[in-house]
């Protein structure tokens, strides 16, 4: 008992010596200024009132529009008609609480609930890409990966892959992941070999060729995924090859399959501007110092 108590005391002493290890003050984190963000179009619209400081500290995109001379900064109002309000809800939960219960899924869900959940994860991932929040993108991709392997209803089928391409941009890791899954299916199908030609293999091949005809990006990425040689350094299996965080010995998301999982302990993996350390535009930030292009500590 005494050992535990003394280690507790030591922790307390240590945190008194090092004030930087204390969480930032509530008032400093949130500030007093709020901004209004309207998301969605006339069909389905939602307005969020958000603390400006907090929002800006998580994404350089928002800091750029609200700490500027743009109309959005002057009026403290922004509108994103193309964004999905329910995905934005997940983004807000992550910004305020650091959790993602909004994209959680009951283990006894229906088929349609499972598919709806996947669409929500993908849409949230799309927002993380759009607003340059690498940590959120990594987490969403991890959840997507595990979900698609855990539940039949969450399978990454061709419709889901097409949806990933709808919601993300050309350099998205979600696209890279989707293309690699598709490549695995193509390789397994191997229609050219008559001996293993089966009805389902032919149907899969036809559908893949159909989807590639409709979406040229999918065809290009599929070709790249099939012809790619494993790249070093960095792991070539599991979710980590699709993560944006700097390549470290142990992936902070390893074994993480829950939407409520805690964030990586290594704060230094992500920069204060929202980017992964290795992807920040600032050279100093890439080597572990705070991003001078963006003064707020994480
Ligand atoms: Zn990783
Ligand atoms: Zn940065």
UniProtKB/TrEMBL annotation:
<dbReference type="InterPro" id="IPR000210">
    <property type="entry name" value="BTB/POZ_dom"/>
</dbReference>
<dbReference type="InterPro" id="IPR011333">
    <property type="entry name" value="SKP1/BTB/POZ_sf"/>
</dbReference>
<protein>
    <recommendedName>
        <fullName>BTB domain-containing protein</fullName>
    </recommendedName>
</protein>
<feature type="region of interest" description="Disordered">
    <location>
        <begin position="1"/>
        <end position="25"/>
    </location>
</feature>
<feature type="compositionally biased region" description="Basic residues">
    <location>
        <begin position="1"/>
        <end position="11"/>
    </location>
</feature>
<feature type="domain" description="BTB">
    <location>
        <begin position="33"/>
        <end position="104"/>
    </location>
</feature>
<dbReference type="Pfam" id="PF00651">
    <property type="entry name" value="BTB"/>
</dbReference>
